[in-house]
Every structure is written in C-alpha cells, then in structure tokens.
Write a structure and sequence with these properties.
The chain has about 170 residues and is an alpha+beta fold. It has helices spanning about 1-10, 15-70, 75-80, 110-115, and strands spanning about 85-90, 95-100, 105, 115-125, 130-140, 150-160. The chain has one domain. The protein contains 4 helices and 6 strands. Strands 1, 2, 3, 4, 5 and 6 form a 6-stranded antiparallel beta sheet that branches. Strand 2 and strand 3 form a beta hairpin. The longest helix has about 55 residues, at about 15-70. The protein is elongated, with a radius of gyration of 31 Å. The model has no long low-confidence stretch (mean pLDDT about 85).
Length: about 170
C-alpha cells in the first residue's frame, strides 16, 4: 500500500522533466567548453608559430641587409649568429638551424630534436669588367610546420673593382 502511494506521487510531480532539462544544459555547456578549449589551444600554437617565424624572418632580413653592404655571406651570418654557428652545404650554401629561442644549433642530432626554423643562404657571383655582382638568396623554413618555406628574399651587392675602373 505504501508503494502505491509513492507511485501516484511520482506520477503527479514533473521532477523528471526538470532533471532531463538540467542534464541537457550540462551537456550543452560541456560541449561548448570543449570547443572553446580547443580553440584556445589552437590559437596558442598558431601564436607560437607566428612569433617564431616573424623573428626568424627579421634575422633573415638582417643577414640580407649586412650582405647588401659587405657582399660577404659568411661575414653576414657571423655578425648575426656568431662565429661557426652554420653548416656548409654541398652546393656552397650555408644553413643555420634555430631552436624555439632562436639560438643556433650545430650538431645533426640536436637539430633533429630541437630545430624549429632553418635559414638557407645561397650565393651567386657574376663578374663583369668593372666589378662583381653578388646575389644572396635567403630562405626561411619552419621545421615545426613540416618544413614549409615561409620566406624567401634575394639581395644584391655590387663590389666594384677600382683597379679596372669600377665606381661605387
């Protein structure tokens, strides 16, 4: 007899609808919270990549500006990154690999593990009657983004030969 009274009271109160609505609201907030958390995580990763690539591009532009004045590829790299922090490729180009703090990395195993940005510089020289035209191609690759090229620039420097009658 007590059970029959409970069943009747249960049927008359709309408690089930309240709890169902509460569960739906909690589900909605948990899904929207997960989406917002994913958006913030993605924004943080993109901000880190953009900051790193911007600083690497500034370094590449500094190397190009020094090269445009001096015409010396190794000297320009040494001015920005210090002596000996680059490797020489088979084509005569120079490569600098940087970590996330923009510090140069020298050994292959450290580059594989911690490298985030790679600068590759290649130089061409054309001799003329009165001097030499030097061109430097500077390319920046974002290793942490699958090795995608993010910047490329060609700078030139004319080195006059004063003995042959070249002028500055």
């Amino acid at each position: 007899m007590i059970l029959k009274g409970l069943k009747r009271a249960y049927r008359k109160t709309p408690v089930n609808l309240f709890f169902l609505e509460l569960i739906i609201v909690l589900l909605f907030f948990s899904i929207s919270g997960a989406v917002i958390l994913k958006m913030f995580a993605t924004a943080d990763i993109l901000e880190e990549k953009n900051s790193l690539s911007g600083k690497a591009i500034a370094d590449a532009q500094s190397v190009a500006e020094i090269y445009a004045v001096t015409g010396d590829m190794r000297g320009a790299l040494q001015t920005i990154f210090g002596n000996g922090w680059y490797t020489e490729g088979a084509d005569g180009g120079l490569t600098v690999c940087l970590d996330e703090a923009r510090l140069p990395l020298l050994t292959d195993d450290v580059r594989e593990r911690y490298g985030r940005v790679k600068l590759i510089l290649t130089e061409t020289r054309e001799s003329g009657k009165c001097g030499e035209m030097c061109r430097l191609r500077t390319r920046v690759f974002l290793i942490s983004d699958g090795g995608r090229e993010i910047y490329s620039q060609i700078s030139s420097a004319y080195i006059p030969d004063f003995k042959a009658g070249g002028a500055a």
